[in-house]
Automatic annotation (TrEMBL):
InterPro entries per UniProt: STAS_dom, STAS_dom_sf
Organism of provenance: Amycolatopsis thermophila
Origin superkingdom: Bacteria
SUPFAM superfamilies: SpoIIaa-like (SSF52091)
Pfam families assigned: STAS
Domain STAS: start-end pairs: 23-120
Protein name (record): Anti-anti-sigma factor
Amino acid sequence: MSTFEPSDPVAHVDVDVEHLPGGATLVRVTGDLDHLTAPAFEAVALPAARQCSGRLVIDLSQVGFLASAGIAVVLAAGVAAPGRVHVVAGSGFTRRPLEITGAEEVVHLWTTRDEALGDG
């Protein structure tokens, strides 16, 4: 039987930035995006958005849970970036909350990373 210990992480997120040939910047997120993990996402995504000279792609394909705090960071990155931000949100866990909140007015949603990195 497993028991919860206060030191056990409730939610976890990994955020990586990769600068791709051609000037694109890829922000890859793995884990859950909620009020506990959104600050770690924000600490990486907003500077990447501000400094990106080409296409900024935020890949949420490995996110299992997307709460309003994570959506707020996606939208903030969309506002901070000099160009339109492209978000990979292929699963219902990520795409549906973004659609419901009207995020497509600020960022462009794609199903796959290849689509988001393409010319669309």
